Amino acid sequence: MMWSPELALALALAIPSLGGVMVALLGSRPNLREGATLVSGVLLALNVAYLVEIAPSHPTLILASVAPGLELTFTLEPLGALFAAVASGLWLINSLYSIGYMRGNNEKNQTRFYVCFCIAIAAAMGVALSGNLLTMFVFYEVLTLSTYPLVTHKGDAAARRGGRIYLTILLGTSIGLLLPAVIATQFIAGSTDFVAGGLLALNEATPLIAGILLVMFAFGIGKAALMPVHPWLPNAMVAPTPVSAFLHAVAVVKAGVFAMLKVGVYIFGPALIVATPTSLPLAWIAAGSIVLASMIALTKDNLKARLAYSTISQLSYVTLAVMLGSPLAMLGGALQIVMHAWAKITLFMSAGAIYTATKKTNISQMRGLGRHMPWLFGAYTIGALSIIGLPPLAGMWPKVFLLQGAFESGHVILAVALIASSLLNIAYLLPLSARGYFEPPEEARLKKPAPVLVILPPVITAAGVIILFFLIGPLRDYLLPVFEPVAIVETAL
Fold it and tell me: Before 30, cis peptide (omega within 30)?
């Protein structure tokens, strides 16, 4: 079979799926098992790089026909290609990190762990490349089910409790709200296809009906963790740190906000969103989530718990961008998916490396550790400063576009929430750096040297955070056709 865009779309699903099979077959031989994981990661990243290049041609692949007019379809477009690139690239780095972490902490059930990772990244590819709501919903659910064993990996009471909350909220919101919203869209528009300009807008859905559907999508996409459907996320932190990194940066929460953005752009369209009576209340809920989650993060001494609430806050940037309905804000939301992923995986991998070397989980216990682990604390500090939004780090750009989008929409008070968020980011992210570098160590607390494979990955992603700052031009131009003509966006730079 000749190489073609359609083949590349199929391989995006096939590579990690076959990788999972190989991992299972090689389970008794750890080196080969983990080699199969890394080879799958490399092949997927190369395949997605090709998809990124050809995305403007919008190739389509029909996976299966469920019923007349209901098909599982992949349709490539720039927004989905970018999410696929983030997920596949960070999966490879996270897989490298997982080897060091799982071996360094003598974790059990490692074969199951790597198999579930492969299934989950295949599901994330399905969400990224989905050509309609039906396809997105199917892979969204596969992503939930395949990550449940990862959340409950440790098998103790806390893990089982965290898993129950995880599954209950994510399945409850998707079956109770998202699925009815998909069915209603099919009923109103006669299709669930993602369409430029907005499927519902082109089918002249009334603002009231669209507003009701907008609420159902906002809370039905529970992986976006908009308050009050967020508790699954902090409760999932009972999982090993590579899982936490995967949930927050690679697939799960990023699939949630990506789905919210894609629904906003291709199902509603910016003009219809602004016309609905619910977009502004939802924008206020998103702004409230940004500030409130940051304030809760301040109260958490456990590093992973603090980072979890930070993610809830940062995810709401994307939901706010959608509800503002401004092309500039939506572009900022798309950039937030990319920039936050690279910074947040850096923070979580740093937390796991500290735990591997010291068995410490609370920030108050980490005095002076920066002197023992300078490369790691340097990587953490770069990730933290990026999330705060300081140049020359990637996290600055989403804030620039979101702020301009809020001002453009006339919602100055909502812009204040973004500024408050950056100030709160300083308050809850930088204390670890300050303790690590400037407070004297109570004792030499490295129980053992941290494995190279838990130090190197966060250093790589921290470097990526710097590089991405200078790639804003190509990224903006790549996403521009999704949102607005060049002339409107040029003013942001």
Answer: no
The one-letter code for the residue type at 429 is: L
Strands (E), 383-465: none
Scored b (16 or more CB within 10 A) or e, 471-493 reads: ebeebbebbbebbbeeeebeebe
Q: Do 432 and 366 meet the contact criterion of CB atoms below 8 Å apart?
A: yes
CA–CA distance, 211 with 216 (Å, rounded to integer): 9
The residue behind tokens 């300083």 is 426
Q: Decide: pTM greater than 0.90.
A: yes
End-to-end CA distance of the chain: 45
The alpha-helical segments, DSSP class H, found in 152-269 are 157-173, 179-189, 199-202, 207-220, 232-235, 241-245, 252-263
Which residue shows structure tokens 């790639």? 471
- Dmax over CA atoms of the chain, in Å, equals 69
Which residue, among 161, 147, 143, 152, has the nearest Cα to 109 in the 3D structure?
152
State how far the Cα of 357 lies from the Cα of 308, in Å rounded to an integer.
Answer: 21
Q: For residue 74, give the 3-state DSSP assignment.
A: strand
Written as one letter, the residue type at 19 is G
3-state secondary structure 315-342: HHHHHHHHHHCCHHHHHHHHHHHHHHHH
pLDDT 10s digit of each residue in the chain, 493 long?
467 899 999 999 999 999 999 999 998 899 999 999 999 999 999 999 999 999 888 899 998 888 777 899 999 999 999 999 999 999 999 999 999 888 888 888 899 999 999 999 999 999 999 999 999 999 999 999 999 999 999 888 999 999 999 999 999 999 999 999 999 999 999 999 999 889 999 888 899 999 999 999 999 999 998 999 999 999 988 888 888 887 777 788 889 999 999 999 999 999 999 999 999 999 999 999 999 999 999 999 999 999 999 999 999 999 999 999 888 999 999 999 999 999 999 999 999 999 988 888 899 888 888 888 899 999 999 999 999 999 999 999 999 999 999 988 888 888 899 999 999 999 999 999 998 888 777 654 555 677 889 999 999 999 999 999 999 999 999 998 888 643 343 344 4
Distance between CA atoms of residues 350 and 308, nearest Å: 14
Residue of 82, 63, 65 lying closest to 14 (CA atoms): 63
